């Protein structure tokens, strides 16, 4: 068993030992809202937004982007499980600002099956050598943070399966302070109609 | 300001007030692993797997499914940010087991802009009345939990952009106990090659 697997199982056993009344939580989120945010390791949405188990749906991907899959999840969240307010929360110092589709495609195409990391923390390894699969993926990189939040809130607001009466709030999480800072243009774009 | 927005901002202010050394965390996950799991409100991956801020990437969508977007996120996690072990964690009593594509399409097509909830907790509201957009979405529902974990680990393992040397572990989180239960066939399918 790997060290990580061992550590995760040990932490889980501790969690189980004090699980208590959480066993009785119902499926629908008790506080009727959902957060779409980034997978970044520094972000803990339960902590930064004050969530207990059972409170809210949390959807996360690279960038916290309003991908088709994130919208699939939000529509299910609303339609089947009753959330009535949504947050889109990107963050400062996001990895998605550090590359472009072209860079990612180049990195993947030149993969050499080594596991070196250059000074910037970028790995040049893995994936089938010379694979061109990455050319067909939109990596959803971010050029400018407030803009990405506005774009994503707007995309969700205008999606044909998203009900017009749900407010969508746009925020940026500051990794240096833990603070949620509103992007007013995003929240305005996400206003219920 | 809505009550939810107010509560979230109050919780965030408290988090900010005791942020401390988290301000100095680097972008790459310190423990070099990633978890793909469900958006379900009852799941707190940081708690059930023992994560502190900075430790690991967490990707979440409806079902914890290995969608194209989840794979986009995992490839970025590995390639740019150095994760070297991945977990796929579905859970018992998942909302994705309670409906099918046909049911979802019917619900969306018959939306009446009311906000009723029937006895099963299903909402019949929202989305443009008569919209057929839902017919074009694969909702990634789940028929059987261990099977979905095996399928998703296998899909990730066989994806052309996923390096063959990363182990992928398959688990089910039990919402009644908080326990992570391995799906051995999934972990076997996800073994590094």
From TrEMBL, chains A, B:
Its cofactor is Zn(2+). One of its GO terms (molecular function) is zinc ion binding. InterPro entries: Carbonic_anhydrase, Carbonic_anhydrase_sf. Binds 1 zinc ion per subunit. Keywords: Metal-binding, Zinc. Gene3D superfamilies: Carbonic anhydrase. The keyword Cell membrane does not apply. SMART domains: Pro_CA (SM00947). CDD domains: beta_CA_cladeD. It comes from the Bacteria. Pfam families: Pro_CA (PF00484). Zn(2+) binds at residues 38, 40, 91, 94. Belongs to the beta-class carbonic anhydrase family. PANTHER family: CARBON DISULFIDE HYDROLASE, CARBONIC ANHYDRASE. This is Carbonic anhydrase.
């Amino acid at each position: 068993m790997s060290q990580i697997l061992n550590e995760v199982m040990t932490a889980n056993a501790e969690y189980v030992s004090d699980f208590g009344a959480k066993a009785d939580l119902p499926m629908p989120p008790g506080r009727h809202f959902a957060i779409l945010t980034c997978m970044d390791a520094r972000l803990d949405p339960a902590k930064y937004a004050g969530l207990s188990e059972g409170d809210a749906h949390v959807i996360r991907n690279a960038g916290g982007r309003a991908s088709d899959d994130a919208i699939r999840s939000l529509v299910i969240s609303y339609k089947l499980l009753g959330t009535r307010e949504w947050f889109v929360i990107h963050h400062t110092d996001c990895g998605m600002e550090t590359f472009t589709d072209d860079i990612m495609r180049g990195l993947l195409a030149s993969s050499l099956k080594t596991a070196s990391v250059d000074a910037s923390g970028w790995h040049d390894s893995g994936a089938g050598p010379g694979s061109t699969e990455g050319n067909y993926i939109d990596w959803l990189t971010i050029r400018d943070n407030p803009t990405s939040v506005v774009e994503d809130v707007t995309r969700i607001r205008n999606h044909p399966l998203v009900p017009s009466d749900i407010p969508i709030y746009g925020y940026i999480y500051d990794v240096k302070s833990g603070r949620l800072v509103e992007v007013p243009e995003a929240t305005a774009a996400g206003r219920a109609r």
